[in-house]
Predict the structure.
Amino acid sequence: MKAAKAGQVNIPEAARLAFCMSEEVVRLILAGKLARKWRFASERGYMSVLIDVEEVRALVRRPDHGGLTGTEIKDKLSTTAKVAAALIKHGHLKTITVVNPMNRCPTVVVPAGEVERFARKYISLFALAKQQRRHFRAVKKELDAAGIEPALDPGKIGATFYRKADL
């Protein structure tokens, strides 16, 4: 082969793109676990071997931890990343440290069950207004008149959450 095609990379580049060590890539080659391999005619030895980076990624990736990141939490709770971070910071969402399946670095996530528990117990003013197809100020005024207080401190969280049981 005279030129590498899209997705074909040498061992060091495959290791970099798959977030693993070159040694792991070589082990995969020697163990016969990589089906797609080529030789680069203009190189010799170690650097002449070309492999499919997606195949390497699939073999070195670890199982998914099942936790949710800040962005996923914000989408699940229909809020902002800042509010999701505040819920974590103030202990309303418990976190765990897991190994990222892609880059193998420790990362802090919230277990999916923890987010579901929070969503069963609380609802934001905006989500409540959206459910009722009303403006959030009208809903807030009605809740205030009924004497229903926010369950979490809006000043600390950056959003107004109510206990669903209080509604």
Notes: The longest strand covers residues 106-111. The chain has a mean pLDDT of 89. The chain has two domains: 8-60, 67-166. The two ends are 69 Å apart (CA to CA).
